[in-house]
Write a structure and sequence with these properties.
By secondary structure, the chain is mainly α. 65% of the residues lie in helices and 11% in strands. InterPro entries: BlaI_family, WH-like_DNA-bd_sf, WH_DNA-bd_sf.
Length: 127
């Protein structure tokens, strides 16, 4: 897996809009992000510029607006962040994380049943 750039939580909010609607223009990003966060257009434009600089986004000019497309796929970013979280907090062991949630009553019986269903389906797929 390639090394992914670090992006802030605010930049991630912008990226979620872009992943959902790409290719997307600056005014469209501003409009959609403004519905989710009380940010000024200049703040959103600054985040777009940072994301381009970090090579998470590419931009090209069409008329008077920039059009943005992602250079990092959403699933790739989420997978990378998940792996980093797992490494940082649980030494990379998924079983330790799940056990932590179960032992601290963080998972309901329904969630445990759902995990069991997923594991059972995974086993069946391996056959």
């Amino acid at each position: 897996m390639r090394e992914l750039p670090q992006i802030s939580e605010a930049e991630y909010k912008v990226m979620k809009v872009i992943w959902k609607h790409e290719p997307i223009s600056t005014p469209e990003v501003v409009e959609l992000v403004s519905k989710e966060a009380d940010w000024k257009p200049n703040t959103i434009q600054t985040m777009l510029a940072r994301l381009v600089k970090k090579k998470v986004l590419k931009a090209h000019k069409e008329g008077r607006a920039y059009i943005y497309s992602s250079l990092v796929e959403e699933f790739e970013y989420i997978e990378g962040r998940s792996r980093t979280f797992l490494e940082n907090f649980f030494g990379g062991a998924l079983s330790s994380m799940v056990l932590n949630f179960i032992e601290n009553d963080k998972l309901s019986k329904e969630e445990i049943a759902e995990l069991q269903r997923i594991l059972d389906e995974s086993k069946e797929g391996d056959k």
